[in-house]
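RECORD TYPE: inverse folding
INPUT: structure tokens
STRUCTURE:
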């Protein structure tokens, strides 16, 4: 992989991927494409490659690159705010960005790994398996279903093309703070706790999520490219953990002893349990998660990104 392009490389997962690629493939020429709507230049501190500031859903690829194409494409660009109410913007930008990308890369069938989402499964509880019926509950999830549909259609037309999709679950880790509201539970609860406040979670805290550390997500994404396979796979920890366990884990790394402050869930339909079935990922991509929740939170804290820009409240003597 001499030429590697990453869309959305200034975002949370994208920047972690870019910096890992830079480390693993030091001789490769890297190009990031991002318009910073869902990212931040601060995430790319230490990045040595090229940068194209562009909205890929409106980019004239031919005019920009004049027929030049990479050896590998990682497509992570997306409007990631699941609460965005403008369905047209959400679907247009996410879907058309991928469509234009596919059409530009079609002549040389550049291998692609793209980010889809566990949100495609909908709000039903339990273990999520690839092959389960998809039931998107918001326009973000709907747009991700359309990405999978586009990839499937292209593969029917071009069966030799290698296009892999990864359904990312509840990702947390360094370089997510710029996201604000869409940032992970780990980020938000840590902020409350560093301010000396009891972390607020829904009563009674036994709801479970498949929290997956970003370093595992990056490893899955690179493994999908190396596999040379086409399809869709889950990208999670495979180990659902409760909100109470998240608070306990944060107390452990922050050195606090704050008990949760429970409040009633305001949503009439709330997903009580998410869990990625990782069997196909392990079988087909030859990889499995390395970080437990406790290990991930420890690494997150030691990276400095969990407390970056925050000042811990001084304890009374």
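DESIGNED SEQUENCE:
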């Amino acid at each position: 992989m001499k030429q590697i392009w990453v869309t959305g490389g200034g975002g949370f997962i994208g920047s972690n991927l870019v910096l890992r690629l830079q480390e693993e493939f030091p001789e490769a020429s890297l190009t990031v494409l991002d318009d910073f709507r869902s990212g931040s230049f601060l995430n790319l501190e230490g990045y040595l490659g090229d940068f194209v500031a562009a909205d890929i859903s409106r980019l004239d690829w031919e005019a920009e690159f004049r027929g030049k194409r990479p050896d590998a494409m990682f497509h992570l660009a997306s409007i990631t705010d699941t609460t965005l109410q403008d369905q047209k913007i959400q679907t247009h930008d996410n879907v058309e960005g991928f469509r234009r990308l596919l059409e530009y890369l079609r002549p040389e069938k550049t291998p692609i790994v793209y980010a889809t989402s566990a949100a495609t499964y909908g709000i039903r509880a339990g273990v999520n398996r690839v092959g389960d019926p998809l039931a998107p509950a918001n326009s973000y999830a709907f747009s991700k279903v359309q990405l999978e549909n586009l990839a499937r259609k292209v593969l029917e037309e071009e069966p030799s093309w290698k296009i892999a999709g990864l359904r990312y679950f509840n990702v947390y880790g360094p370089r997510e703070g710029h996201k604000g509201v869409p940032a992970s539970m780990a980020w938000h609860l840590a902020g409350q706790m560093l301010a000396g406040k009891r972390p607020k979670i829904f009563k009674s805290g036994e709801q479970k999520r498949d929290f997956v550390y970003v370093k595992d997500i990056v490893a899955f994404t690179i493994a999908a490219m190396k596999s040379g396979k086409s399809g869709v796979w889950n990208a999670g920890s495979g180990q659902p953990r409760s909100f109470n366990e998240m608070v306990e884990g944060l107390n452990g790394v922050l050195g606090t002893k704050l008990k949760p402050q429970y409040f009633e869930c305001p949503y009439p339909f709330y997903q009580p349990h998410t869990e990625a079935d990782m069997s196909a990922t392990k079988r087909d991509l030859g990889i499995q998660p390395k970080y437990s929740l406790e290990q991930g939170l420890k690494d997150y804290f030691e990276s400095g990104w969990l407390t970056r820009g925050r000042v811990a409240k001084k304890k009374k003597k």
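NOTES: The first helix runs from residue 12 to 24.
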